[in-house]
Design goal:
Elements: H1 3-20, H2 24-28, E1 37-39, E2 48-57, E3 76-83, E4 96-101, E5 117-123, E6 130-134, E7 140-143, E8 153-161, H3 174-189
Length: 203
């Protein structure tokens, strides 16, 4: 969560951040490399706030996805996932799926309907694997359904966020959005048991 770590983020992801969010540097009045940095939740102002969250997804007795296809909130411009899978964990699923819309992008809140998406790539949940991406309306990702397991799912979540919304999320029309919300409430009660969508070229 240091300024040095932010500069490492910019060294690797700076061009992608600028491409997805071309107005950020103008808003800050300085290039990404010179942004002021603070740890998220601390007092004071900064161009960007960083955080590192140690996360555990609890064991489950049903096949379930902790987070289906979605984009992260509008202030977040960078996300990193450092997987810490247990050696004895033989559970299937729990991988990172990357999606794109088949046609026009439209979300119900921050979530997308699986039938509207193509699954472009799946990144295995594997020990010591680090995945990072620039968050934007096209950064659609989710966790694939995980089989019933007594094992926890472990990772560290790295976050970089601006003090304002960096983008807007295109929304579904009101009635389909409400219907999708009702569907999500129903599936949540059942553990969000979801089928995977077909990869590109197979659906």
């Amino acid at each position: 969560t240091s300024a040095d770590f932010w500069r490492e983020i910019v060294k690797v992801n700076g061009d992608a951040i600028r491409a997805r969010h071309p107005d950020l540097e103008a808003k800050a009045g300085r290039p990404l490399e010179e942004w002021s940095v603070k740890r998220r939740g601390t007092e004071g102002e900064a161009d960007v706030a960083l955080d590192a969250l140690f996360v555990i997804n609890t064991p489950s007795e049903i096949q379930a996805s902790v987070r289906p296809a979605h984009v992260d909130y509008e202030q977040k411009i960078f996300a990193g996932l450092f997987y810490m899978r247990l050696d004895e964990d033989e559970t299937t699923g729990g991988d990172l799926a990357l999606y794109r819309f088949k046609q026009r992008a439209a979300f119900g809140g921050h979530y997308a309907r699986l039938n509207d998406l193509h699954e472009d790539k799946v990144v295995d949940y594997r020990a010591n694997r680090f995945v990072s991406f620039v968050n934007s309306p096209v950064s659609i990702h989710g966790v694939t359904p995980r089989s019933p397991s007594p094992r926890v799912r472990r990772y560290v979540n790295f976050i970089a966020e601006t003090p304002y919304a960096a983008f807007e999320i295109p929304r579904l029309p009101t009635i389909p959005r409400f219907a999708f919300w009702l569907q999500r409430r129903k599936t949540k009660r059942k553990g969000i048991t979801l089928k995977s969508v077909a990869p590109v070229g197979q659906g």
